[in-house]
Amino acid sequence: MSTPASPTRPSLTDRRWRDDLHLAHTIADQVDPLTRARFDAQDFVVETKPDLTPVTEADREAERAIRDMLARARTRDSVLGEEFPTTGSAPRQWVIDPIDGTKNFVRGVPVWATLISLVEDDEVVVGVVSAPALGRRWWAVKGGGAWTGRSLASAKQLHVSSVADLEHASLSYSSLSGWAETRRLRGMLSLMQSCWRTRAYGDFWSYMLLAEGAVDLAAEPELELYDMGALVPIVTEAGGVFTSLSGQPGPWGGNAVASNGLLHDAALELLATPTDNMPKHANRTQQ
Q: Where on this chain does Mg(2+) bind (predicted)?
């Protein structure tokens, strides 16, 4: 019987990105106190982006700090983030979301995190999710398993659940409004009605709970690469599956369905259920 790789002794397959994983942790260590202090103080100005989502000074401050550290440590790599334009054109690209869960952040809800990932050859090979207000961090590197803990040296390996039937499954999501606006509400409701339990844990936390085996399914209808990049290796290295609603693997499809693998096909089938026309309020938004 083989022994799982220790977080301090990377396997042959993950050794290639060991230094990148350490760098992502170092960046998270530096950014966590910054974002946590702003969250505790609630002393920031909240602005609205063109897509009507909120952004704070803390988002921009955190992303600038991450970009500065990457500019010093990985001079040749490209950087894609939420708040500032993409820099560089190298095939290795860091993808960052300084505060995933900004709406929680501005309301004093502790469910938010900094997401840091590395894409190489069109595959996410490193992912770190750090949620300082929850006192939690999760990470994965391709071929090295998924882990949670306070440091690389003190960590617990993650495994998805073994639930094989939707009637016994727990589903996590963020909200229903996005499903209505993308004309996918009926499919989502079909999936919710087929599951044993549904809860809106939301944002990154749905996927971390999936990797831990606490929930069995997670789905969102509208996402950007920076929303998903860090989540993908953590889910897949924990034994799960992460695709778009059309079944495209990885974070490239503009939306997400993640599962323990056993439930994936059934979830995709239900989410493909034809839905009603777009509701009136969504039509007004687009006019």
A: 82, 97, 99-100, 227
- Structure token pair of residue 19: 């230094």
Return phi, psi of residue 131, to 5°.
-120, 85
Known binding site: residues?
82, 97, 99-100, 227
How many C-beta atoms surround the C-beta of residue 170 within 10 A? 19
Tokens at 190, concatenated: 């079909």
CATH topology of domain 12-157: Fructose-1,6-Bisphosphatase; Chain A, domain 1 (3.30.540)
Contact 233, 125 (CB under 8 A): yes
Domain residue limits, the chain: 12-157, 166-272
Query: Residues comprising the binding site for Mg(2+)?
Result: 82, 97, 99-100, 227
pLDDT value, residue 9: 53
pTM (global) more than 0.85: yes
- Which residue stretches of the chain have pLDDT < 70? 1-14, 44-55, 275-287
CATH number assigned to the domain covering 166-272:
3.40.190.80
What is the pLDDT, as a whole number, of residue 58? Answer: 86
